[in-house]
Structure formats: C-alpha cells, structure tokens
C-alpha cells in the first residue's frame, strides 16, 4: 500500500515536472492528453477528407458510368485508362476496388477508431473523471506516434505503382494472399498489413491507458455510478478494443505467414495463373472467423463513443437528466458483451454450418434489444425538455435518427433467411453506412462542436454549424436511403458498373442522384473544416461553461494547462445529470417570484448536497447530512 | 520539484493497485487474447479435418521444466531485493536469464526434432500451427528476457530501493505470466495435438 | 425519371440556399442582442426539424411507391416465396417502429424547443416505461427469430435425393458449369489436374466422370429440386441468383452447396415481366478481382421435357477432348468410350 502510494506521487512528479517546454515537447512529442487528443483529431480530419475524396471518385464512376474521366489523369496517372483514339478516360477497374478498399480501411480504422476514440477518450477521460493526466503519458504519446507511423505507411501505399490493397477492407484471403489474383495484393497488401500492425499496437497502447486511467485515477467521490455516460462509453470501448484487436493481430500474422513464408493457414487447392499452388489444407473460413471476431466488436468500438458523446450532449441541451442513466449503462454493457458473440452473422452464406448460423441469428437479434432501449431513452430525454439547438445538439439528434434508421435494417440482415438475398448487396452498404458510418461520424462532429471551447478556448461559428448540419443530414439521407431500394433489388456491392446485368441496370438515375448528393455532402464538410481552423484562431472567445454543463471539465480554466486544474482537483458529490432539478414543493411555496425566475437549471457535479437543501430528494438529504459530518471530521483532523 | 501543482489534490486512489502495475495486467490480457485466438483457430481448423497428426516431441517437457525453474529463480531474486540483498538479486536474475536462454535454445532443438519427424512449418496447418504457437511465445519470451536484462543493469545503478523493488516485481510478474502462458500452451498441445 | 430526380436535386439545393438566407437575415435582425440571436435560430432549427419530418416522410412514401417495380424483383423459386414473405413481415414490423420513433424524435425536438418561460421536466427514470420497451422489442424479436429460423432451417436443410446435381465453379472471371450426365453423379476432381482444357480438374480414373459434360449456360428444369455444388478455383466467389433468392459463397478447398426449386421458366418470366429479352442471370457477390463486376452467366429455366432434351444434345467432355482418354485407366477405357459416347472409329484409327 505505502509503496504504491509513493509510486503514484512519483508518477505525478514525472509527468508534471517540466514546465519550460520547448516547442517540440509541447506540440509534437507531448505527453499531455489534451495535446495528444488534438493530434488525433487533426489526423482524423485529414484522413476523413482523404476517405471522402476517394468515395467521391468511385461515386463518379457509379453515378456517371459514361463520364470521360481523363481530367483526373493528372492526379491518378495510370489508373485512368485513356482510349488513344477517342481520348475518353476510364477509371481502371482494379483501381476502383482499391478505392473502395482504402475508403473502408481509412474510415473504419483511421477516422472512426483513431480519430474518434483517440480524440475524445484522450481529451475527456482525465477532464471528466478529475485526473491530472492519463495513467501513463508516455504510453499515450507512443500511441499517437504509432498511429502516425501507421498513417504514413498507409498513405504511402496509395502511391506505389501496383496500387494499394484492393481486396476489400476485410482483406479476405485467398484474394489478399495472392498477388497473381490482383495486383493490389502485392506490395500494397504488405504495406496494408504493416500499417495495420502498427495501428493495432497504437490502439492497444491507447486502450490500456484509458482503462487504467478510468479505473485508477478518478477523483474523490467519482464513483462508477457518478461517471458521465461519455466515460462509460469510452471505458467499454477500450475494453472491447483490448479484447478484440489482438485477435486481428493473430489473423494478420497468419496471413503474413501465408503470403511470405508459404504456409497454408488460409490457402488450399488453388489453381491460378496457369499453375496449381502447393498449398493444401488451409481454410479461408478460418480467416473470416478471426477477422470478424475483431470486425464485429469493431463496429461497436466505432459506435459506442459516439453514443456516449451524444448522451452527454442531448442531456445538456435538453436541460434534462438523461433518461434511464442506469439502463443506458446496462445497455452499453449488454452491447459490449454481445458484440463478441455475434461475429458469424457476417458469414451466413460463406459455407458456414447452417446450425452454427442459426445460433448466431439468435444472438445477433438479441443485440437489437439494448439498442432499442438506447433509442427510446434518447427520445424520452427530449420529451418535455427545453431544447437548445446548438450545432452539437443538432448532430446528436441526427445521430439518433441514423441510429434508428440503420439499426432497423440490421434486423433484416441478422435474420439468416433474409441475409441470403441481401448479403453483399447495397442494402448492407446502406445499413452500415447509416448505423455505424454516419451515426458515429455525427457523434464525432457533435463532440467537436461541443468540446471545441474546451480544446481551443474559442467557440466555433454557430451559423456555419447549422448549415453544416442541415446539408450533411439531408445529404446523408439522400445518399444512403435510396441505397436500400437498390439493395433490395439485389445490386451487389463493390461492382465497378452495373450495365453488364439486365437485372441491375435499372436505377441509373437514382445512382446519379446519390452521387450528386454525396458531392453536396462532401462540400458541406469543407465548411466544417473551414469553421474548425478559422475558429481555432479567430473564433469568439469561449466562456468558462458555455453550455451550462454539469461535468468536471468545465470547472477547469478556459485554457487548462498541463495538469488541468491549477489548484486541487475538485471533489465530486453528485451524478452529472442534475439539469432542471426542481425545488421541493415545500420550498417552492416559500419562494418569491424573482427566486422562481432565477432558479438555476443545472447543478454541477462539484456542488455538495449540503449546499442545495432546496432541491434535494429525501435520500439525498441523508447524503447531505453525511457530507456535513465528513467535512467536520476533516476540520478536526 | 513541482510547486505549482498541489499534489495534495491528487485524486484519491480508487484501487489499491498501482496504475503502472494495472497497465501491465491489461497488457497481459491483450497477449492472452492473441494466444486465445491462435489456439481457438487451431481447434476450429482441426475440426474441419485434413489435419496432420504427429507425436509431440518429449523434449518439450524439458523446456517446460527449465521455464518453471526460471520462475522460481526470478521469485528468489525478488525476495532478495525485498531484503535489500542486491548481490543475491543479481545472481537470481542472472540465473533466470540463463534459464530463459536455455529454454529458447531448447525450443529450437524441439523444432529440429520436428523437422526430422517430417513436421514442417510450411505444409499442413497442423504442423504450422505448432511452429507459430511456439514462435509467438518465444517472441514474447525474448521481450521478457530484455525486461529482466534491464532490471539486472538497474541493480548496478544507484537507484532508489523502493523503485527498484517495484520494477523488479513487475518484471517478475511478466515472467511468471510468460511461464504460465507456456504451461497453457504445453497442456493445450498435449490435449489437441 | 431522370428529370424528376434532377428536379429533386434542384429543390434540395434551393432549400439549402433558402435556409442559409433565412438564418442570415434572422441573425442580421437580431444583431447586438445575443440571446435573441440564439432564440431566433433556435426557432428556425426547431421548425426545420418538423419540416424535415414532413418532407422526408412524403419523400419516403413517394419513393417507395414510385420505385416499387424496380426494387421488387420477381420470385422464381419455391423458397423465395417464403423468404420474401418473411422479408415483408419484417418490413411491416420494423417499418412501424421506424415511423413511430422518427415521428417522436423530430416532433419532440420541435415541440420542446427552448423557451424562456418553460422549464424542463426533471424526469430521470421510470422503470415501468423501461421495462415496457425492453420487453416489447424482445417479444417482437423472438417472433421474428423463431419465424426466421424455421425458414432458414428449411432452406438450408438437406436436398431431396432426386435433386438434379449441377456443379458451379467460380474462377477469375467466369462461372463454369458441369453436369453429371446420365448417371446423375459428378466425377471426382483434383485441382492439380486442372489445365487449359480440363478446367474442372476432372479425375478421369473415376468412372463417374466419363459422362460429365460442361455447359456455357446454366440450364435448370422447372419444378424439380436442383442441388448446386459450388466450388472455386482461385479466390472466393459467390453464386448469386437474384430471382431465385439464392446466394452461396464459392470457396477454394471447401465445396459448398445450395438446393432450390425453380418455379418459372424463362419464357414464363418473359411474359410476367413483359420483357421479351428477359434472362435470368448469375452474378458474383464476393469481391474477386478486377473482373468481379463482369462475372455474368445466363441462366435458362426450361420445362422439364425441354431440359431433358437439352441434356441429351450435350456432348460429354471426354468426347470433346478425346486426348484425355490416355488418363483413363486401361480397364475402364471401354466403359469410358461407351459412357462418354465416343465414336469408335477413333480407336479403330489408332489400332490401325
């Protein structure tokens, strides 16, 4: 006990001893969680733009298959095949697959995992639980720089002559193992695997740190039952990541061995390029099991932080406590546990044993129950609220709408009998882009609008935020809602064009419409990027607690320094959702009109119950008595 | 060292475990998941048939005994450090390092025996899995050896005894973990090979 | 349709521009007074929430009706009728949930917009309500699960004994079909025997392979169970027959299968769809390389009699590739000649 205590103080000394920081240690190799969070955020924005541009290129191809793309040649070089006689340029069919693959990889891992968890877990965990920094600032810094190295490798893989990985973001072998099958499986795939290995290390370093911090460094009084839902979400996300990412590492290791050392874990009975390969006894299905054991939890790694962020924002801006705080935690726990036992629903028609398939139908559809609880609880939080539409609030409501729209189609896809027809069609594309892509993205953007004042001490422009929201919201629905129709009609995903098939050649107009909507949506994001960087320097100065919020981060100075609180870390007395808490009836009668008018609609977590006798519920009144006694006890000491 | 931050305001500890030690435990959890996935992959793949069956070389038992002994010696080093008997600590660590290295050599020896028995790394996954499990474990064991080596160097530096003790305890925990991991793999291989 | 969509796009852009204008004027009017600015834009946003609900509701209903013919593709298999029924039942149930929740979400957002006078209701919990929306979805999902599993088990159950066996093999970038011939049994294969002509790697030491024949189109008999034996030669592919509601991955080294009963001939389907050029098509739905999008084969469903006649016309693979007789073991050669229907003159030539 005593040694551990000494150690803890040492940690504090180590991390906060250096206040004359050079530029490099302050902004580049910083161990401060706030700086690392900003590094993750800006990297995430960079990747989101890259991922978005990639999707625009393939949307051009899908929406306007007859378009002359020779104007893209200066950027894409030999990936545009120009017909020498007519001069008409066409996107290379293999590069199309590379675009789809990189779009998926970038968005899922680099934007919505690193950009989202990396930003908000880092930024909010110490600030909202009342800690000076992460459990290990050094590991936290390493986490970012592993991510950075991983980003550099992934980015450079897009510029090699054989092209980046092109076998889909799930990189199913044998396609991903055989350069003979697709040129992206050559050097591009090697770089993909190297990049992902570093990425996994980064995620593990970060996740271990988040868990250790939440468990060990909560301030006095911050019990688990008083944690903001954001922290619950980040905590569970980190636990899921800790348990699932190592599995991806194993899957990748075996794939690397198959690719470079001639083993046969995933390869068997293959005849390609005019020769029969010697590999025997491997199983491509084994890879799918290992991949989806990560891959499905990954969906929740992406989604849960956003759900946590919006819980906080919706409660604050409805000026109401989040409805069903415990049910929200319970459903997140349920989702976290269930996320590990549903992976094979991605494999219903992969040749999986149908009996195994039916078990996964059962488990998969159960996960809809906690999701439904969350959706209903969000809606009830809005009911009889006093809703302030900040940009963050708008994006949070948008998230709930996407979460419902995309979640409901999951009930179709989780039912194996329906998945036969819908598997690998645009229905799936619509489903996961709404429920995980757009919903998680909206949560991330909402978080940026909401915590921007804490990050940079300035406000983002509201008006631009509103325009950003409405264009994005309508735009995203215009992109993904029609895709359901296309999917029900059976259009397969990852098709370069549909004109080869009579069955799929209808909907050309709709595809053009989707592409236009995608373009408009992307333009709106540029507005956000402008707003973000402009406000960083020129935005209106923030006040200490601009959203009148209860959580701890707003008790720090407007520009918190290293260590977050200049004085002692505040003590926490109550849960974070005491919004619009009314006075007791007894007290209400005694109040003057003026007092009634000025009744505060929020009570921060740091306010003891003993200071609010007017609004305490009976059991809280007992707590107040206890507090008083404790305070006396301290004074005597 | 620090004046402007009031350490008295540092958060009350919520758990009696040190954060760094807790981080080590979480790190070990992630290693467990790597091996859990590899061994369950082993079982899933085996159940699909077309699996190479072979005799497990009995030399693996020797490796196992060596590694268990090294766990004993590292524990001895830790308890010596608690009594502030630094020379004994150094001796214990050196023995552990030696045994760890012998274990690695012994594993390579096992591989050569496997090759003689026509169980190859490249070939039926039944054989490949064995090499991968042993190889990934050996990789982690090397990291453990490096950790212990750093500890050994530290004992020669004028460090605070309490800090050394703490670090040494962590490295021993990691070493025991790698030992336990190997025993798990050994039992697993006996049952499923 | 195209002009209609363009129209929608234009309206969309106009709405956006209008919103920008509206916000700017509001803010311009209220400049100086910060709280009024917020109050003004708060009202606009609340109004837009309601407007979005109404407009998108209309758009959803309109589009689902307008495109019904396009996305509701005809069904041509027995199990397809059942899975489609499940699909529409799920659609109704989830559709109701979708409509209710979205209406509540946007209506509440509009109705409970901020006003200085109103105070939010402190309402942190209601265990009865929460129990309600835990149990109701749980019950509804249980029904869907049970129904779904019943359908799934029927579809995936063992194929009838008398099913027509046809082998479908995916390779970059084409599908290939092998019929078992008169004995209705496919011969063994070994991937190491694959070459330019022997694309299936047929093992000619197996007598079942002598009468096997390859086809360029997938012919199926109407009203008879068909068992597709699916395999892949290089990378993953996936057999997708949209009208038959059939999909199954083709995996190298691990044969898969799917059985079904076609219910409408190509001719009947041409009548039903009023499209004289209609053809059933086989597509690939597992990414397999640059030609993924072009792995198409025509599927023809015949009346059983026509199907038998078509089969009769087909020449066995061995008769088309007599060189491979050398791979047939000596003692089976004669049998091979007979079952493969090879003219004897060739062997006479060689004996001369």
Write the layout of secondary structure elements.
The complex is a heterotrimer of chains A (637), B (193) and C (352).
Chain A: H1 2-16, H2 23-28, H3 33-63, H4 73-76, E1 80-82, E2 89-91, H5 93-129, H6 137-157, H7 187-216, H8 229-261, E3 271-272, E4 275-276, H9 284-318, H10 325-338, H11 354-366, H12 368-382, H13 391-413, H14 416-422, H15 426-456, H16 462-488, H17 508-538, H18 585-590, H19 593-597, H20 618-636
Antiparallel strand pairs in A: 1-2, 3-4
Chain B: H1 19-47, H2 59-82, H3 86-116, H4 125-155, H5 161-192
Chain C: H1 2-29, H2 34-66, H3 68-71, H4 78-111, H5 127-156, E1 164-171, E2 174-179, E3 213-215, E4 218-221, E5 226-232, E6 237-241, E7 246-250, E8 256-260, H6 266-273, E9 280-284, E10 297-302, H7 304-313, H8 317-320, H9 333-339, H10 345-351
Parallel strand pairs in C: 1-5, 4-10
Antiparallel strand pairs in C: 1-2, 2-3, 5-8, 6-7, 6-9, 9-10
Overview of the molecule:
The complex is a heterotrimer of chains A (637), B (193) and C (352). Chain A is 63% helix and 2% strand. Chain A is built from 20 helices and four strands. In chain A, strand 1 (80-82) and strand 2 (89-91) form a beta hairpin. With 193 residues, chain B is an all-alpha fold. Chain B has five helices and no strands. In chain B, helix 2 (59-82) runs antiparallel to helix 5 and helix 4 packs antiparallel against helix 5. Chain B is elongated and about 60 Å long. Chain C has 352 residues and is of the alpha+beta class. In chain C, helix 1 (2-29) packs antiparallel against helix 2 (34-66) and helix 2 runs antiparallel to helix 4 (78-111). Chains in contact: A-B, A-C.
Characteristics of this structure?
heterotrimer; A: 637 residues; mainly alpha; Cytochrome C Oxidase, Chain A; 2 domains; two-stranded antiparallel ribbon; 63% helix; globular; disordered N terminus; B: 193 residues; Four Helix Bundle (Hemerythrin (Met), subunit A); 5 helices; 76% helix; elongated
In short:
The complex is a heterotrimer of chains A (637), B (193) and C (352). By secondary structure, chain A is mostly helical. Helix content of chain A is 63%, strand content 2%.
Please provide the ordered H/E string of secondary-structure elements of chain A.
HHHHEEHHHHEEHHHHHHHHHHHH
Q: How many domains in all of chain A?
A: 2
Using only CA atoms, what is the Rg of chain A?
A: 26 Å
The oligomeric state is heterotrimer
Q: Strand order of the main beta sheet of chain C, please?
A: 3-2-1-5-8
Give the count of helical stretches of chain C.
10
Helix content of chain C: 40-55%
The share of residues in helices of chain A is: 55-70%
Based on the coordinates given, report the CATH architecture of the largest domain in chain A.
Answer: Up-down Bundle
Q: What is the 3D shape of chain C?
A: elongated
Average pLDDT across residues of chain C? 87
Q: Which radius of gyration of chain C do the C-alpha atoms yield?
A: 31 Å
Quickly count the helices of chain A: 20
CATH architecture of the largest domain in chain C: Sandwich
Q: What is the first-to-last residue Cα distance of chain C? A: 72 Å
The CATH superfamily of the largest domain in chain C turns out to be Cupredoxins -  blue copper proteins
Describe the main β-sheet of chain A briefly: 2 strands, antiparallel
């Amino acid at each position: 006990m005593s040694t551990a205590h000494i150690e803890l103080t040492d940690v504090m000394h180590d991390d906060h001893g250096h206040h004359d920081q050079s530029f490099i240690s302050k902004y580049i190799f910083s161990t401060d969680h706030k700086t690392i969070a900003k590094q993750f955020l800006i990297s995430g924005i960079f990747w989101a733009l890259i991922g978005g541009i990639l999707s625009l290129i393939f949307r051009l191809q899908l929406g306007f298959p007859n378009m002359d793309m020779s104007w893209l040649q200066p950027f894409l070089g030999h990936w545009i095949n120009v017909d020498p006689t007519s001069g008409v340029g066409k996107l290379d069919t293999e590069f199309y697959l590379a675009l789809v693959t990189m779009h998926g990889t970038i968005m899922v891992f680099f934007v919505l995992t690193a950009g989202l968890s990396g930003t908000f877990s880092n930024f909010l965990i110490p600030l909202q639980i009342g800690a000076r920094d992460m459990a290990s600032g050094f590991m936290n810094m390493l986490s970012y720089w592993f991510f950075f190295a991983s980003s550099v490798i992934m980015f450079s893989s897009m510029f090699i002559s054989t092209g980046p990985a092109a076998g889909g973001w799930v990189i199913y072998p044998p396609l991903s193992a055989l350069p003979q099958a697709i040129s992206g499986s050559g050097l591009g795939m090697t770089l993909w695997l190297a990049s992902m290995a570093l990425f996994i290390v980064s995620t593990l370093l970060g996740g271990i740190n988040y868990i250790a911090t939440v468990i060990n460094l909560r301030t006095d009084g911050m019990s688990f039952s008083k944690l903001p839902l954001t922290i619950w979400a980040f905590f569970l996300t980190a636990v899921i990541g800790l348990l699932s990412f190592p599995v991806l590492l194993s899957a990748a290791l075996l794939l690397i061995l198959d690719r470079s050392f001639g083993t046969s874990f995933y390869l068997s009975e293959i005849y390609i390029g005019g020769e029969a390969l010697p590999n025997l006894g491997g199983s491509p299905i084994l890879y799918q099991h290992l991949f989806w054991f990560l891959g499905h939890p990954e969906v929740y790694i992406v989604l849960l932080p956003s759900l946590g962020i919006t819980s906080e924002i919706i409660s604050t801006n409805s000026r109401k406590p989040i409805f069903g705080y415990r049910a929200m935690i319970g459903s997140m726990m349920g989702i976290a546990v269930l996320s590990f036992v549903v992976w094979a629903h991605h494999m219903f028609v992969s040749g999986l044993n149908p009996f195994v398939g039916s078990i996964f139908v059962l488990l998969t559809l159960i996960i809809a129950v906690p999701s439904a609880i969350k959706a209903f609880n969000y809606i009830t939080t809005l009911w009889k609220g006093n809703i302030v539409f900040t940009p963050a609030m708008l994006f949070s409501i948008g998230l709930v709408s996407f979460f419902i729209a995309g979640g409901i189609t999951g009930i179709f896809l989780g039912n194996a009998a329906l998945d036969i027809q819908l598997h690998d069609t645009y229905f799936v594309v619509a489903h996961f882009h709404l429920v995980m892509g757009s919903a998680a993205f909206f949560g991330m953007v909402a978080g940026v609008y909401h915590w921007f004042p804490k990050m940079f001490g300035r406000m983002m422009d509201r008006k631009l935020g509103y325009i950003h929201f409405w264009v994005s919201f309508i735009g995203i629905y215009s992109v993904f809602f029609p895709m359901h129709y296309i999917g029900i009609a059976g259009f397969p995903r990852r098709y370069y064009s549909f004109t080869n098939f009579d069955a799929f050649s209808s909907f050309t107009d709709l595809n053009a419409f989707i592409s236009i909507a995608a373009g408009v949506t992307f333009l709106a994001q540029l507005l956000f990027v402008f707003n973000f960087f402009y406000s960083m320097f020129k935005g209106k100065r923030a006040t200490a607690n601009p959203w009148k919020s209860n959580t701890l981060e707003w008790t720090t100075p407007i520009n918190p320094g290293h260590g977050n609180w200049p004085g002692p870390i505040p003590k926490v007395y109550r849960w974070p959702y005491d919004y619009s808490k009314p006075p007791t009836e007894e007290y209400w009668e005694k109040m003057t009109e003026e007092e009634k008018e000025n009744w505060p609609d929020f009570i921060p977590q740091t306010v003891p119950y003993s200071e609010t006798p007017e609004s305490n519920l009976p059991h809280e009144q007992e707590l107040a008595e206890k507090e008083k006694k404790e305070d006396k006890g301290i004074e005597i000491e | 060292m620090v004046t402007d931050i009031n350490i008295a305001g540092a958060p009350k500890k919520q758990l009696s475990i040190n954060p760094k030690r807790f981080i080590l435990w979480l790190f070990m959890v992630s290693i467990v998941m790597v091996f859990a996935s590899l061994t369950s992959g082993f079982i899933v793949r085996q159940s699909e048939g077309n699996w190479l069956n072979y005799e497990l070389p009995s030399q693996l038992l020797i490796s196992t005994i060596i590694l268990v002994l090294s766990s004993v010696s590292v524990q001895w080093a830790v308890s010596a450090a608690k009594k502030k008997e630094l020379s004994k600590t150094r001796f214990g660590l050196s023995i552990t390092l030696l045994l760890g290295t012998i274990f690695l050599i012994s594993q390579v020896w096992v591989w050569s025996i496997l090759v003689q028995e026509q169980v190859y790394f490249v070939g039926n996954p039944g054989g490949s899995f064995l090499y991968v499990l042993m190889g990934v474990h050996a990789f982690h064991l090397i990291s453990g050896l490096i950790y212990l080596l750093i500890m050994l160097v530290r004992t020669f530096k004028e460090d605070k005894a309490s800090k050394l003790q703490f670090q040494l305890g962590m490295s021993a925990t990691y070493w025991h973990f790698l030992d336990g991991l190997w025993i798990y793999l050994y039992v697993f291989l006996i049952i499923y090979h | 349709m195209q002009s209609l969509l363009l129209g929608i796009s234009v309206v969309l852009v106009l709405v956006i521009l209008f919103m920008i204008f509206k916000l700017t004027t509001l803010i311009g009017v209220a400049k100086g007074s910060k709280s009024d600015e917020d109050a003004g834009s708060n009202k606009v946003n609340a109004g837009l929430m309601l407007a979005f609900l109404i407009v998108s509701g209309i758009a959803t209903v309109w589009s689902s009706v307008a495109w019904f013919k396009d996305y509701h593709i005809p069904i041509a298999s027995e199990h397809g009728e059942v899975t489609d029924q499940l699909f529409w039942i799920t659609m109704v149930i989830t559709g109701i949930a979708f409509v209710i929740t979205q209406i509540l979400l946007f209506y509440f957002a509009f109705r409970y917009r901020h006003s200085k006078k109103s105070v939010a209701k402190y309402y942190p919990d209601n265990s009865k309500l929460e129990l309600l929306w835990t149990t109701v979805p749980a019950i509804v999902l249980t029904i869907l699960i049970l129904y779904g599993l019943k359908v799934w088990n029927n579809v995936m159950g063992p194929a009838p004994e008398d099913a027509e066996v046809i082998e479908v093999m995916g390779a970059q970038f084409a599908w290939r079909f092998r019929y078992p011939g008169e004995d209705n049994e496919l011969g063994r294969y070994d991937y190491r025997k694959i070459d330019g002509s022997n694309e299936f790697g047929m093992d000619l030491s197996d007598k079942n392979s002598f009468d096997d024949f390859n086809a360029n189109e997938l012919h199926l008999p109407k009203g008879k169970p068909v068992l597709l034996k699916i395999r892949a030669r290089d990378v993953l592919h996936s057999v997708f027959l949209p009208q038959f509601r059939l999909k199954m991955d083709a995996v190298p080294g691990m044969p898969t299968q799917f059985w079904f009963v076609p219910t409408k001939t190509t001719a009947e389907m041409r009548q039903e769809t009023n499209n004289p050029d209609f053809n059933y098509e086989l597509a690939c739905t597992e990414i397999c390389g640059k030609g993924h999008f072009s792995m198409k084969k025509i599927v023809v469903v015949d009346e059983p009699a026509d199907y038998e006649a078509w089969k009769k016309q087909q020449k066995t693979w061995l008769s088309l590739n007599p060189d491979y007789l050398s791979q047939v073991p000596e003692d089976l050669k004669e049998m091979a000649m007979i079952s493969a229907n090879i003219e004897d003159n060739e062997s006479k030539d060689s004996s001369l």
